[in-house]
Specification:
Number of helices: 7
Radius of gyration: 15 Å
Strand content: 5-15%
Strand order of the largest sheet: 2-1-3-5-4
Shape: globular
Length: 176
């Protein structure tokens, strides 16, 4: 069961969030990060990315604010551990095409494993990556928002707080 129609993507996005793949529940309700233990929308709010805490059922509203959503793999699973190497390989090609086609200002990988699967790198630091695989798109590696992640929520939020700063800096440079 593939769910490419779950994408919330268009030209002119400021920020595109890229996850591993939809959870079974997210695929069922057709909204991103909809699982009851997923802290995604809380993290966005606490990091200053959104002006209020949205719900998963408002992901289309965020698209209208320049924030989009996609995944490296379309197939829903219970956990990301179920994704096969072949799915990552095919997903990398599709994702690179999406990034080159839609050219969001910043691509945020929600989970370092997503970024590593996409970039082909063996390791990466949290935050803004020094070089862009897609060319012209800033790439940012952030922790997964899953409740299964063992990092403290405050540590995760601190990493996501870099995103508004990067966006402001990019905007001020483009206004010159």
């Amino acid at each position: 069961m593939s769910r490419p129609e779950l994408d919330r993507i268009r030209h002119g996005l400021d920020l595109l969030f890229i996850g591993y793949n939809p959870s079974l529940y997210s695929a069922q309700v057709m909204h991103h990060y909809a699982g009851k233990n997923n802290r995604f929308y809380r993290i966005l709010y606490e990091a200053g990315i959104t002006e209020r805490q949205f719900s998963p059922f408002e992901d289309r509203d965020l698209l209208e604010q320049g924030i989009g959503f996609t995944n490296i793999v379309d197939r829903p699973t219970k956990t990301a551990a179920e994704i096969t190497p072949g799915e990552y390989k095919a997903g990398r090609v599709q994702l690179l095409n999406k990034l080159q086609t839609y050219q969001p200002k910043l691509a945020c990988f929600v989970g370092k494993g997503v970024y590593l699967a996409y970039s082909g790198k063996k390791k990466a630091a949290w935050g803004l990556q020094p070089d862009s695989v897609a060319g012209g798109v800033l790439e940012f590696a952030a922790p997964s928002s899953s409740g299964l992640v063992r990092m403290k929520i405050s540590e995760i939020v601190d990493i996501y707080k870099e995103i508004p700063l990067i966006m402001k800096k990019k905007q001020s440079i483009s206004e010159r």
